[in-house]
Amino acid sequence: MKIWVNGELVDVALQTTVLQWLNEQKVVPESAIIELNEAILSQDRWESTVLQNGDRLELFLFVGGG
Fold it and tell me: Of 9, 22, 50, 56, whose CB count within 10 A is highest?
């Protein structure tokens, strides 16, 4: 299936949760904020939220540095 991630269309396996997708992308969950279909998705829902065809995911990452 296809979803939008930060404005780009990407392939995602059926029945993939938000947390599974983040892990596949090697995203550290503690450094991320997720917006799903224009609403912030709290971290406690990432494991139970299954992505659907056509979903719009916005990923915001906090990066430290000097």
Answer: 22
